[in-house]
């Protein structure tokens, strides 16, 4: 399993948005099947965002894995296709249920179980996480952070206890520092400064792309958030073990794909841009 864990020091700094973006971008690029695992012990967002059935997802996965062990078949079977085109195992909304499911899964995760998958796990705030085994197994950890001195300091603190060989910082919001400065001071591998882009953020949460092409062309402004997250994902691929790197995109297209292939409505967004 290639495992990319997305989390944050204290929460509320766009971890879920970044996880949805990285999973969507990887799915569009091709390569191993991508599963977004919502492993946030403070409760999930995807069930409400995408209106998926409460009884499925993480709770059912935990029950099945306890009986028969964790396998990639099981993980796939509990992933649902979200309207954005991403396959996801969603966490229950209630934090008590999410926490119980994650605690049951904690001893069952092993790196060699899902060789054929790219799992993007959204663990939420690391300080309250019940998915610490996932964090310790990660090939790459992406920490979503605010851009203030205080928020970056908390992020640096979190980086200090992460064992993953590659740690990237995805900054949302006002930031007075450059990416190189953040990489150097936080001892990170990579840093992306993500633009404020409510439209991309909404599309990642399943919002429909505006219908009128003219409106879309203006509103899109080339989806700066989607492109920034996609570029981060592409850079991070080189830090995955060689056997786990997805096939290069044969068309050489940046995400969102301009071919019309790939997840909806992201692909249709690009199709609209072409007109
Ligand atoms: N670059 C951005 N531009 C505009 N809005 C954004 C951006 N990134 C995130 N948002 C919005 O900010 C809100 C919080 O983001 P998100 O849910 O991803 O944070 P989080 O770190 O997962 O929060 P929590 O710790 O509560 O799980 C969401 O409404 C999301 O759509
Ligand atoms: Mg979240």
Description:
- 48% of the residues are buried.
- The chain is 40% helix and 17% strand.
- The chain has 275 residues and is of the alpha/beta class.
- α1 packs across α11 (224-237) and α3 runs parallel beside α5.
- The protein contains twelve helices and eight strands.
- An eight-stranded mixed β-sheet has the order 3-4-2-5-1-6-7-8, sandwiched between helices.
- It has one domain (2-274): P-loop containing nucleotide triphosphate hydrolases (Rossmann fold), CATH 3.40.50.300.
- The chain binds adenosine-5'-triphosphate and magnesium ion (MG).
- Magnesium ion (MG) is lined by residues 15-16, 40, 45, 124.
- Magnesium ion binds next to α1.
* DSSP, total strands: 8
Q: Largest sheet, if any?
A: 8 strands, mixed
Distance between the termini: 39 Å
Number of domains: 1
Reading off the top of the CATH hierarchy, the class is best stated as Alpha Beta
- Return Rg in Å: 18 Å
Strand order of the largest sheet: 3-4-2-5-1-6-7-8
CATH superfamily: P-loop containing nucleotide triphosphate hydrolases
């Amino acid at each position: 399993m290639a495992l990319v864990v997305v989390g944050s020091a204290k929460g509320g700094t766009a971890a879920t948005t970044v996880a949805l973006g990285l999973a969507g971008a990887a799915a569009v690029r091709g390569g191993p099947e991508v599963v977004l695992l919502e492993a946030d012990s403070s409760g999930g967002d995807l069930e409400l965002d995408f209106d998926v059935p409460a009884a499925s997802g993480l709770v059912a996965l935990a029950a099945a894995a306890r009986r028969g062990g964790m396998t990639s078949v099981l993980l796939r079977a509990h992933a649902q296709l979200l309207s954005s085109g991403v396959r996801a195992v969603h966490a229950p909304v209630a934090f008590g249920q999410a926490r119980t499911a994650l605690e049951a899964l904690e001893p069952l995760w092993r790196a060699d179980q899902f060789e054929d998958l790219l799992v993007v796990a959204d663990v939420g705030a690391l300080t309250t996480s019940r998915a610490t085994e996932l964090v310790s197994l990660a090939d790459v950890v992406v920490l979503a952070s605010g851009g203030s001195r205080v928020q970056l300091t908390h992020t640096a603190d979190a980086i200090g206890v992460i064992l993953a060989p590659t740690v990237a910082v995805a900054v949302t919001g006002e930031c007075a520092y450059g990416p190189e400065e953040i990489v150097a001071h936080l001892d990170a591998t990579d840093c992306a400064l993500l633009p404020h882009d409510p439209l991309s953020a909404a599309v990642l949460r399943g919002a429909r792309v505006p219908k009128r092409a003219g409106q879309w062309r203006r509103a899109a402004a080339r989806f700066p958030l989607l492109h920034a997250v996609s570029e981060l994902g592409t850079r991070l691929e080189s830090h995955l073990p060689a056997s786990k790197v997805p096939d290069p995109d044969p068309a050489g297209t940046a995400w969102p794909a301009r071919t019309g292939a790939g997840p909806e409505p992201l692909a249709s967004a690009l199709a609209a841009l072409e007109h």
